[in-house]
Amino acid sequence: xxxxxxxxxxLDNGTLTVPGAVGKSMPTFGVGRTISLQFLADSDGVTFDxxxxxxxxxxxxxxxxxxxxxxKPWYHQSIHPSAGFAxxxxxxxxxxxxxxxxxxxxxxxxxxxTTTTVGTGRRITLECFILAETGEYSERQFVVDEFEAGx
Length: 151
Known about the structure:
mainly beta, seven-stranded antiparallel sheet, 2 helices, 13% helix
């Protein structure tokens, strides 16, 4: 069976599994790059409800990202107090059939929900800023210590 699902590990909501990414091509992953992933999403369930929180509370005013003069990525987050999450830092894991992609630590910088015509599913788009491969930083706290900027 083909596994095109993605796993998104969050701090507060655990592991979310979403159906395969949709679109014409996969983004090019790399440290310091911003990527966009669009997923099919059920209209009910924990995964949709959790990702809907990112769509409500993730935007330019809550998360800042960039690279320093050496090209090292950084992020700063000021999560809204009503948000259903305390950190925009996530671990993205592609399914086994997605291709030769690695797992990546990323910060959700924006999210949106798209409703489509009758008979097609809702789609959630996550804009993510890539910080590092998981092979370099095996635990969340290592990523926070290395890349979170105390502005």
